[in-house]
Structure formats: structure tokens, C-alpha cells
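Why does residue order matter? Because the sequence determines the fold. Keep that principle in mind as you read this record.
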Amino acid sequence: MSLLLCTLFITLFVDIVHAAGFQFVTCGSVIKLAHIQSNVRLHSHEVRYGSGSGQQSVTGVTDTGDANSYWVVKGTQDKPCKRGVPIKCGTVIRLNHLQTRLNLHSHFFQSPLSNNQEVSAFGENGEGDSGDYWTVQCDDDFWRRDDIIHLKHKDTGRYLHASHNQFGRPISGQREICAIPSQGQDTLWQAMEGIYLKPSDGTS
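Structure:
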């Protein structure tokens, strides 16, 4: 094999490995989010809260294979993002639940178990309101898959959190997801399993 062919093969191999890693979380990616402290995945399903807003509940589950834990990364209604573009740290995003097409949402209702701020799934066919907006707080220029992040609710300034409280029937053992006033070790999340779209040319 000639030196040129060897170089091309190595370059191609590195490109494939690099692409397979998909180091950035990009617009349109379908991801699971793990709460670092408890290792539960952010989850939703067609079960409504019996109190508070009565909207679709959002919980944390330990089963890493549950299909109801996939969320689509989207831009806001007034500032959509282009598919495959890496998400910059500090960007305001929406997380759209893949199965039910409702958005991760928060508001000033009390959460049912810990009496913090309720987090729900809300909207119709992927469209809701500004209560669906979350700021990605990370330390790099762009949100990388290995980054440990905070998600700050834009309207209320509170942080996505998994409490220690667990629900009973019909969602026995699932953890309460809520929002709390300050960030800390208990508000850290990481992108995990999913379908990561290939970054578009350039990261600007």
C-alpha cells in the first residue's frame, strides 16, 4: 500500500471514529439526560399529576433502556436552531419528549412530593410557551457530550433537579423531578444514550 493510500486510510479511519463519538450535543439530537447524583434518567409518560398543574408528569427512572426517556434538543420558538449545529453553552433550548411531543416545562406550581417547583411536560405538537425554555450552563464554548451541565429554567431562574422522593402507584419507584432555587451537586446532569446528529460544517 502506498504512503498516500495509507495516509488516506488513517485519515478516513480517524474521521469515522471521531464522527462516531459525536463529541457535541447538536440541535435535533435525541438524547437521554442522567442526573449525576442519583443516576436516574429524565423521563416522562402519559400520566398526569394528580395535583398542581395537572399536566403530564416528569420523573426520573433507573432503567437506562426505557424509551420514554428520550428528549429532542430544539431551539426556542423565536430562535430555532439548525439541525446538526452544536449547542453553545449559555444557549436557551427546549427539550421535546420524543414519545408524547410535549416540552420539558416548569412554572410556579408546587411539586407534589418535595414542595419545590413543579416540572412537567407541556404543549401541543411540540409547541408550548416560554415555560419550556431552559438555559444550558456548561464550562466549554459548546455543550459536549462529556460535559456535566446545569439546566436553568429561563422564566423562574430555578435549576432542574431530581429529588430523593419516590412516587407510589401508578409510577411506583420513579423519582420526583422538580426545580430548585440554587445550583449545586444535586442539579448536575449529563447527556447519555441517544442519537447524536453529525455536527454541521463549522461550530459558529
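Residues 1-20 have pLDDT under 50 and may be disordered.
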